[in-house]
Amino acid sequence: MMLSAFALIACCLASVVLGAPYSNFAQHHLPPTLLSSRHILRARSLTDLKDNAALTDCLLSSRLNVIDPARNDSSMYWDAAQSDNLAFHFHPYAIVYPRSTQEVSAAVICAAKNGNVAVAARSGGHSFGGFGSGGQDGSLIVDLVRLGDIHSDSAKGVANVGPGARLGDVVKGLWHSGKRGMPHGTCPPVGVGGHALCGGFGPTSRLWGMTTDNILEAEVVLSNGTVVVANKDNHEELFWGLRGAGSFFGIVTRFTFKTYDVAGPWVFLEYRWTSSLKTVADTVKTIEAIQAFAMSESNPAELGFHLQIQQPNMGDPPGGTVSMHMRGAFRGSLATFNGTVAQALQAELDRRGLPLVPDGVRTDEVDYLRLMEDWDDFGKADDKLDTLAERLRHNQFLARTSLTMDNTKALSTAAVDNVVQLLWQRAKASTSTENWAWNVYMELFGGSHARHLDKELVEASSMQQRDALWLIQTSVGMMPNTPFNIEARNLLQQIDAKWKQSLANDGIVEKSYSCYVDLSLGDEEWKEAYYGKEALERITILKHRYDPIDLFRNPHRIPRIDDKKTLSKIGGDAGDNYVAVSHPLPR
Known about the structure:
single chain; alpha+beta; Uridine Diphospho-n-acetylenolpyruvylglucosamine Reductase, domain 2; Vanillyl-alcohol Oxidase, Chain A, domain 3; 4 domains; eight-stranded antiparallel β-sheet; 19 strands; globular; Oxy_OxRdtase_FAD_BS; BBE
């Protein structure tokens, strides 16, 4: 059966295929390995997990809730070990569920003193590369699901949020505490912890900045178990690092976020083109029209949107070879939207002789809670932000991401045509028996009046490579527990190559986005793609100051500083009395 029945909506921005629910910690027995390839990593056998009795005893004596393969049945362990993306499955040494900052500290101390076992924090488990499960075998996973409290002070415009809170819970919690909100993505079960520390871009980021820009304070457990509070006045350099590269330095156990008044009207908008796209040229012209509008002064900060190109699915109007959706959020009334945004966008479409009206149009004036519910494509009808129900689903996908640097540089006609030609060819060649799907997602990252590109926010964050117009993601997905089709992997590589070629031909520098971690990037590639040389130098110094034993590590590791003069200047808060011990498991 063809996967057009699966709405390839951008929940988590790469959730190409959703599978059936699984039973949390109980019924669903996952396979011990997944198909091995360069992009789908084979998990090591459980017998390769070296016994570390001292670590186990330490965790248990600290009264932590522990799940490991030696003490729990395979079903419970597999479920506890699993990340959202089944394409990357790893075998942690153990998974712990702390109930307080003190218990997080105890777990960290146990790992540091008993073999320097790699520690990975997991807020929601939606890392594209499975980093929430370590990104490698043998890690200690600190699952923060029990640290998910949300306390909003609407009068002060701030909220204390636990890292284990899911975005859907944040929406509801802030809304019901004085109709407040904050910028973040649109996938309800994503954990706010990882999301905030790597960036956190969403439809209101052009208005309010990214999630990471709105962190006012963070409580952090360092590698020696010390708990520090970082803000603009205390551990200010660590505060800078946390806002964009936070997973390298410790485990955040509490955030204080700035919140915003979200009362009043919003507009949920969705345009769908399917049968009206008769040719490749029609598709290219439509993308060009939307891009021209995005770069014009008519595009207000109050508007955020993305484009999604895929094969038509059951939610699309009938007919057509490819489907393109424009989905967005506008802060204001429908009358204002129609009199400004809609008119300006329509003018760009008319200028290219395109259809006056897309095949499907929806523009509804709603409140903020309804806006977020409408964006949730996979929730229950009676609770579209039910994060418990939605986290019981898994995806299996591979993705590539391009951040097109220089907000003033538009994609040329030739560049867009180069990619769209391939998409049309693939769509025409598809059959009704395919069990995989593809998706190209173009999120307007920049455009006119984008708040998160302001100099003050860029300088205050370790995510400094922001001067970009488009955040482009290409993904292919399979049903969970289905080996990846070689044709799907090849198409992903082909589309990604087309984007790279097109950007290079246009003189557009390609970077990437660390929230969409990509294990296909080489060791030097990901550092430059996510951070750039100057930011990486500061991040490296911070890493050795706050985590000198490299406890918080995964396949994307910060390089060691071996220069003695540099080391003597760094000092540190986390290295006292600790010596890095060689660990028998791979790092």
